[in-house]
Amino acid sequence: MPPKTATTIALGLLALGCAALSFFLGPAHIAPASLCHGLFSGQGIDAVIAREIRLPRAALALVVGAALGASGAALQGLFRNPLASPDVTGVTSCAGLGAVVALYFGFAALTPALLPGFAILGALASAAALFVLSRKGVGVMALVLAGVAISSLATALTALALSFAANPYAMSEMVLWMMGSLKDRTLSDLAYAAPLVIVGVALLLSCGRGLDALTLGEEAAQSLGVDVGGLRARVVLGVAMATGAATAAAGAVSFVGLVVPHLLRPFYGHSPARLILPSAMGGALLVTAADIVVRTVDPSEQLRLGVVTAMIGAPFFFWLILRLRREA
Amino acid sequence: MRRAHGCVAILLCALVFAAIPARPAPKRVVSTFLCTDEYVFRLLPRERIAALSFEATDRHPVVSTIADAARGIPAIHPSAETVLALHPDLVVMYRDTMPALHGALAGAGVSVLDVPWANSLSDVGRITLWLGGKLGSAERARNLLAHMDNEIAAARALAHQRPVRTLIYEPNGYATSGGVTDEVMNIADLADVASRLRPTRAATLPVEAVIANAPELLILNGEPDFTNSRAALVQHHPALAALDGRSDVQWMNLTPMLCPGPWSLDLAPKLAALGKQARAKMSR
Amino acid sequence: MIAFENASAGYAERIALRGVSAVFEKGIVTGIVGPNGAGKTTLLRAALGLLPLMQGVIRIDGRPLPQWSREALARTIAYLPQGGEAHWPVLARDLVALGRLPHRDRDEGAIDAALQRADAAALAHRRTDELSAGERARVLFARALATQAPVLLADEPAAWLDPAHQLRLMALLREEAKRGTAVAVTLHDLALASRHCDALLVLHEGRVTSSGVPKAALSDETLASVFGIAAIRTADPAGGRALLIPWSLL
């Protein structure tokens, strides 16, 4: 439907616009024109800053946001539950655990690909728990509680892992993993995150038809020719890849997967399939904007990205629970 | 007769005064902090050290200059219990650290020596001599300072007329300036540019700032092989590699400067050599 | 259209169908009745391939069930599960459009026709969460019709509906049968079953106890042995069917 496509394109353009703003923002006050010139010419300090520092940060914000937004939309479609999202269900915490083990115990030093690889394995572990839960048609509260349990366990294990790490900075970086940060990210971080996120989101997009059918319930969906078991597996795998790669790059950025699909749902006729791509765009927009806010409010960058998303997301989460309880 | 009595009186007084023992040098000394460990280990023979703090011999990570040399000396995690169990006759603490331990030791009637932080080389000299006196090792203290002077002389011999613009970049982007570090750098003929680059409130410099105002010599504190934390990854940021030709980037282990003291000057000749090398490279 | 040949199926804890042989013919409404736990829903789920058979074979249009691809089966059998739900508050029309998924097209003509036949055309642009139970039942029925499948299976479609909506729904099912669809419904309301179904299948503990026209299938012996009740029979004032009203416990 043309109006809906227009909205999606608008979201995408807004996200790109924010990314451009993010690209031009930085402690070394360089004129946008010089930055652009540096980006394409590759000559001089401006080029180094533009390509090695500004570009990875702006692009990663888009990639991480897209991963989290699409994952949230897909999980909400799979569970038929507006509270599902990678962070509420504990997927990001487990991905963070995987990433921490890879980085602090030297695996990432062997091959850089092991960092997102371990994060994806961590995400798959919690996603496996979700897989089992989703078969029972679990209720609202049960899903949230299971997510809290998984999250708490993963966070505790992360703290444990960091305390055993040989590195003196390990414990203080706990905050970084729990609250997320895009500071000083490199092109190599982007090179690993982007393809994995793209594959993950593509996998989620392929699940659209099945997620729409699930609106009628599992049995009706199966009678409509949807392989529900295969659908579950694809959603779980897609979410694990996208969220795992995003968390490996930026740490656990919370609430994006919860807020964005929920805000966009009414505009797309509450159809789970139509929501996935716009949620990716919306997520990219939200994370990029949050990254700009973080650097504007505190140029010394002690404020973490996750703080901004949590300040928007947590009150929203609370309001959502109240509203659902009232309706129930 | 009266003169004879006077001489005897004086002789008796002299004998009495000679008999009063000088305050005994402490025999069981416990040090509770890395920076006092470094002093205590160098000023006292091993038999008189009851214990050092665990950081003195910690290998994960190595933060002390005496990690190998001090092996065998008991290392404790300082707390009232662990310190009192050693029955020390003197506990050396850093001023304003561990107030709870201070209070507990005062309550137990144990002598505590508070060592102040050194902000300059003259502070270092003063504190070294004072500590030497308190510990009954004045001779060793003087030797330490003599060695320090030798290092200063060696560094100055390498020095040039024009100081090299230098930045010391630590994990997480820390770049502090001032204090003993600055003085050591000055002796090595390195001009610290950290303050000019306006570090943030947390004393960090973003990678961007380092690249935009590249110093002639960039010293990365740490090991080039350790990439196992986000903090270390900042030092390995590919953007720093782009400084090739504009800065001389060198890795160096700066552990001696972690605690200010005479040993910090051991770095001075090495720093001066780096500076000379950087100057040669940059002028090419 | 759908033939069960000595079919047995069950779950981990128990066997739900034991050697069931039955046929759902085209052009008639087959009612499946029986006490709770008799295996009524299991029979439908087995026909859809949602539950594998332990014994016997199910043939759809002559071909055994395992030979049907998932998509072909979806185009052939439309299923209206019990307690019809719409988890998201979509527009009624979009809900009905889901019935076109097996055909992978959004045939607006088929959707319109389905809404028309289900007597839900006026509801097309309303949100499903704003509909009453009866209106939602009709919209869900339209969804099943939108697939244009030759077989329609409905599980307790009249449960929780008020009498007017119950009658309306059964009338819609009979219209579908008249078009040539094989309609099979499970019902627990014997009065409704005996009045609106052309053939009945009585299940008890997984076995077929009787089948045939309602008058024969629901004989007094069957009512006593399977349901434990006695009933009053009256004649349909409009002529034709005998009516059954469960009356007393035995």
- Give me the secondary-structure category of chain A: mainly alpha
Average pLDDT rating of chain A: 88
Quaternary status: heterotrimer
Largest sheet of chain A: none
- Estimate the helix proportion of chain B, in percent: 40-55%
Uncertain segments of chain A of ≥5 residues (pLDDT<50)?
none
- Number of DSSP helices of chain B? 11
Structural class of chain B: alpha/beta
- The number of helical segments of chain A is 15
The coarse silhouette of chain B is: globular
N-to-C SSE string of chain B, H for helix and E for strand: HEHEEHEHEHHEHEHEHHEH
SSE layout:
The complex is a heterotrimer of chains A (328), B (284) and C (250).
Chain A: H1 2-24, H2 32-41, H3 44-79, H4 91-104, H5 107-110, H6 114-135, H7 140-164, H8 174-179, H9 187-205, H10 208-213, H11 218-223, H12 228-250, H13 256-264, H14 272-297, H15 305-327
Helix pairs in contact in A: 1-3, 1-14, 2-3, 3-9, 3-12, 3-13, 3-14, 4-6, 4-7, 4-12, 6-12, 9-12, 13-14, 14-15
Chain B: H1 2-19, E1 29-31, H2 34-43, E2 49-53, E3 75-76, H3 80-85, E4 90-94, H4 99-108, E5 112-115, H5 121-135, H6 138-158, E6 164-169, H7 179-187, E7 190-192, H8 207-212, E8 217-221, H9 230-235, H10 238-241, E9 248-252, H11 267-283
Parallel strand pairs in B: 1-2, 1-4, 2-3, 4-5, 6-7, 6-8, 8-9
Helix pairs in contact in B: 5-6, 6-11
Chain C: E1 2-10, E2 15-24, E3 29-33, H1 40-47, E4 55-60, E5 63-64, H2 70-76, E6 77-80, H3 92-97, H4 108-117, H5 133-146, E7 151-155, H6 163-178, E8 182-186, H7 190-196, E9 199-204, E10 207-212, H8 214-217, H9 220-227, E11 229-235, E12 242-249
Helix pairs in contact in C: 4-5
